[in-house]
Design goal:
- This protein is mainly alpha-helical.
- It contains 14 helices and no strands.
- The protein has helices at about 1-30, 35-40, 55-65, 70-80, 95-130, 135-150, 150-165, 180-210, 210-220, 225-235, 235-260, 265-275, 280-305, 310-315.
- The chain is flat and about 85 Å long.
- The protein starts with a helix and ends with a helix.
- Belongs to the binding-protein-dependent transport system permease family.
- InterPro entries: BPD_transp_1_N (IPR045621), MetI-like (IPR000515), MetI-like_sf (IPR035906).
- It is a multi-pass membrane protein.
């Protein structure tokens, strides 16, 4: 079992290192000049980029752009391991400080969206399998593929139109208070919930036809007990895997959702960092997303043996 845990931790570290390295190579292969963009940004986007050579050299030395690419990679990677992602080109402050100012709204939004998507997805799948009316079952089983086809920005704009502009129940923009979280969290949660409901619903349906369920049913167990005690535990593993995989998608969706709802957070910070080619900031945000993805998948991997003892026996 110890080898299983160590192997999963190794996979998580490999994912984080791979995300950092690929991001570094992609950013440093771009044809544009980050120093020129930095100078243009400091002048309000006006004027040309032909500045004094000493100023350019000083900026390149400050941010390490004058060193060979391999040296830059090794230096930045070593500093990143220690939690130091350098100075933001856009803000002129340490990257960690800037991220610290934006991280809480995004964590709150992503956490609420993930919670809502899990509750909604599980509820649809379980009610669809418990329902004895064919019309209800058919409608609930058709709902996930339909909802999965809705992009987050379209869901967000629809929610804004109905619940903010027409009914006035929730604020249309802003980051203050729980009410401002509700609509963007639902916009993020609906596509993920649809995927969870689809996978769990089909898994439950297959498990209900398994021979051991027939034996339990023959012993007189009630329908609710068969679902919640015997079949749900066997059917939930594919959904847990999907939850781990969709965490990265939720963080990616935050970029669009925070823009639609004019929220301050890491999504909008990433958008402006990409526009300004703020390499240290983009790298730190990608690594942060990779860490969240790796940690959630590690937790899911460690839960497998708890849910299914057969996995624990194979790991041992």
């Amino acid at each position: 079992m110890t080898r299983y845990v160590l192997r999963r931790i190794g996979y998580a570290l490999l994912v984080i290192w791979g995300a950092y390295t690929i991001t570094f190579l992609l950013l440093y292969s771009l044809p544009s000049d980050p120093v020129a963009l930095m100078i243009a940004g400091s002048s309000g986007g006006e004027g040309d980029y032909a500045v004094d050579g000493e100023v350019r050299a000083a900026l390149e030395e400050r941010y390490g752009f004058d060193r060979p690419l391999v040296v830059q990679y090794a230096t930045l990677l070593l500093r990143a391991v220690q939690g130091d992602f350098g100075q933001s080109i856009q803000y002129g402050s340490p990257v960690a400080e800037v991220i610290g100012e934006f991280v809480l709204p995004t964590l709150a939004l992503a956490s609420l969206a993930l919670t809502v998507s899990i509750v909604l997805g599980f509820a649809i799948a379980i009610v669809a399998n418990l329902s004895r009316r064919n019309a209800v079952r058919t409608a609930l089983f058709l709902l996930p593929p339909l909802a999965a086809s809705f992009p987050s920005f379209w869901v967000g704009l629809t929610l804004l139109q109905v619940f903010s502009f027409q009914l006035g129940w929730f604020p249309a923009v802003g980051t203050e208070g729980f009410a401002s979280l509700v609509l963007p969290a639902i916009a993020l949660a609906i596509p993920a919930a649809a995927a969870y409901a689809q996978v769990l619903g089909e898994s439950l349906e297959r498990t209900l036809e398994a021979p051991f369920v027939e034996i339990v049913r023959a012993k007189g167990a009630r329908t609710a007990r068969i679902h919640f005690v015997h079949t749900l535990r066997n059917a939930v593993i594919p959904t847990f895997t999907l939850i781990g995989l969709t965490v990265g998608g939720i963080f990616a969706g935050v970029v669009v959702t925070e823009t639609v709802f004019s929220r301050n957070g890491l999504g909008r910070l990433l958008q402006t960092a990409v526009d300004a080619q703020d390499i240290p900031m983009v790298q730190a945000l990608v690594v942060l997303t990779a860490v969240a993805f790796a940690v959630v998948n590690l937790v899911v991997d460690l839960l497998y043996p708890v849910i299914d003892p057969r996995i624990a026996r194979r790991a041992s």
